[in-house]
Please model this.
Amino acid sequence: MPKITIDNKEVECRAGIPVLQAALEAGWDVPHYCYHPGLSIVASCRLCLMEMMMPDPKTKEMVWSPKLAPSCQTPVRDGLVVRFDSDRVRHNQDICMEFFLLNHPLDCPVCDQAGECYLQDYSYKFGRPYSRMMDQKLVNPKKDIGPRTLLYQDRCVMCSRCVRFTDEISGTNELCLVNRGSRTEIDVFPGKPLDNPLQGNVVDICPVGSLLDKDFLFKRRVWELTGTPSVCPTCATGCSIRIDHADNTIYRLKPRHNPKVNQWWICDEGRFNFKYVQDAKRIAAPLVRRGSETSCPDWNDLPQIIRFRLEEHVREKGDQTVAAVFSPFMACEEAWLLARFIRSVAPQATLVLGPIPMVGEDQRFPVGTTNGDAKFTILREKCPNRRGVGLVLTSLGGPSLEFEPFVEQCKKGAFSAAWIVGGYPTPWVSKDTAKIAEGFEFLIVQDIFENELMAGAAIILPACAWTEREGSFMNAAGILQPFDRAITPPEGAKRDGQFLFDMAGYSGLYMGDRVRAMMAADIPGFAEAYVPPPEPPFAH
Amino acid sequence: MASFEPVLLRNLGVENSRSVRVYESRGGYQAARKALKMTPDEVVEEVKKANLRGRGGAGFPAGVKWTFLPKDRTRTLLCVNADESEPPTFNNRVLMESDPHQLIEGTIIAAYATRAQIAYVYMRVEFHEQFHILQRAIDEAYAAGYLGEKIFGTDYCLECYVHRGAGAYVCGEETGLIESLEGKRGWPRIKPPFPAVEGLFRRPTVVNNVETLCCVPHIIERGANWFTSIGPPHSTGPKLFCISGPVNRPGCYESPMTITVRELIEREDMGGGMLKGKRVKAVLPGGASMGVLTAAELDMKMDFEDPRKYGLLGLGTAAAVVVDESVDLRGVLRNLTRFYGTESCGQCTQCREGTAWMYKIATRIAMDAGRLEDLDIILETSRNMGMMPGLSICGLPDGATYPIETLIKKFRGELEAAIRAQPPDRAERVLKVLN
Model:
């Protein structure tokens, strides 16, 4: 580990990183635009310049170099002495901020980025409160560059992060630079809009309000949003995300840095996959049928009702006739609680992993790379927790089945009682599967939306979307990652985890890490969940 | 001094000087034959001994540049910088027009010395005629066996291509040129790695100016000692000087680097004095980027060292523009700032925004709506950019600041007088209209 000295403080840093990254990781607020740890270095914004100790060419004595050096382009090496806390460095930051704002429209009141804008932050911290330019501003155009993204060129600081992203990460090269000097613009090629599965990231990495997400445009001021760390449930990659919400409404999903999984990126499929959470068609209240009677019981009575009726069934038909279908959208903790409950009533019950949605092929980026070189992968397995639920079911032992044999067995009449958990964001019950509903005498269906199985169900339970739950998912690489709940479920529904906690006979508040600790006693695989280290406070 | 016999321009005015036959009949391609009998390192040594300083503007010794190439390289590429885009400069153009084979011969020797097997001539797009002249000469050289495989019967092979630019000043900067040659946007690259280590297509690359390469055959033919005997020790060899503006004989002239700006303007065989007896007000002696001289500073020697004493950046391209007494310097200021404002590549913040801002201010001053503090803002802005204080990737903003800064510093009185002579509320009125 090389040691460098920044502003008279010795800092130990990772080898091979630029001084800027080392300073950010050590807590310095070094202003920068063009540098992004996930992209190549261009050293063009000239905002992160520092002073560096160099040997004097004549006396060989170490002196402060007369030139400022870009800290993003200078790799750390042992014994390097630099400083940001100097008049020359501050002067450069000051003039840079004046230059950045020369032609900027100063339209913060109507800009989506306001509140998380590094032009605002840096101007406030490093810049000056006035501009000396009296002349008319150069107005670069606003452009619609793709189905989901707008470009306000007048706010651009020309860091070229977005251009490098489409070149180096997505590999699709839609964005380019046209014109010269202060008239330089980001643009797309005629007839080739910015439309690739990762394009939303250019909005995230834009340090100013130049690239805008049409979906979020003018929806909410960012300082009103609360960010909750979560994990994307859209595919088995399990990207770290942040759910930005206010007033119990989700406004957008943003990636979180996760060095083991998604780096800094997420795909558009995951980014916009939260609309179903706020769908009005969601089931919001439990329903119990007995004969031709239906009732909407209180949540507090449901555990007794279910336990009573299931015990009744086991007494009459035996415990081999009971099955439970676990959705790959369930958190590990929920799957474990449900399995514990089922097995406590029917020790020989069959545990079944629900259908795994597979769509298309795996997509690797940059486009054209093979598995090993890929910087980002979208998997065809469109569920977050096949491995976690699978691990719970195999660890518990006893009878278990895959979903397809289970359907076959049902048709033969092998099972007469079942608890089926859905929770898929899209319709998942095929015509073939729907037929099995008739064969059950006692069927519990738990899902977000109505499905074809519910016609024959004795009890219908509303399920919650992952944004309303808490627990952990195990991704395709076997990394167990916890997620928090961001919003409360719709009126009338109850969080799955809490309900199953009650069902399994525990009392008190359901908490993901507490249940995980209980699970770890049986299943060592759940002993440790991976939480990515937080990004340095001033990195972006 | 008048007895100096032209070296680089010796074929200028000779009938059919562009043809390989005429070039050879006047001693051409003998140096290349001689060089190919030497080892590459001997050629490099000879050029180093001659202290041939690059003619492109910075004056870096060409032989030393060649030694920066890594020793264990497998492939080297040679780029010939024919992107002559410095405003009043046309010495490369004259060389390529009148004597294209001299350039080809220099290219062969330089490529041999650096062990390059491919040479690219990067030519500015505005050179239409010159492109065809050079291309014809290259075709002739291929036909004669001087390019291609087994040159002069030796085992050495060299392919030579002409690539035409797309009209950007910044592509004359060597890494901008390399990016452009790779088919990318002509944005200068960050260094290190330097082109000698990782340049064109990530190979070790040498970039040399046309005039530099044209000197090489003469060094090989007549020896380094002959070359160093011309001119002062720090600025050896013959040099082309351009003169334009209101002089009697604008053009490109060859001389050792002992002449002064005054001689360049006044000498009968050069500028031939001022047109209609006008008086000199200012001179930009080294292309646009080096700075401005006043009429009192005309005794500056046109070599690589003397211009610094006059607050100039360097010799530059040695292309002088004369500004006569009738010219409004506000127009000169506007013209200069416009050039850099439109030619800044847009990469580094200070240069991108600073040059455009200076142009805006200079335009307003030229519209009779200047303010005295505008001159200070321009001066401060010009101090806040450039490679020398470490604020940019390439040297373009340095070239932008020197002429603007020297013009304002040396002619501040005149500029201020012009601003004071404006109608009193003119600046405020124009600003109101503009905003």
About this structure: The mean pLDDT of chain B is 94. Chain B touches chain A through 35 residues (CB under 8 Å). The longest helix of chain B spans residues 349-366.
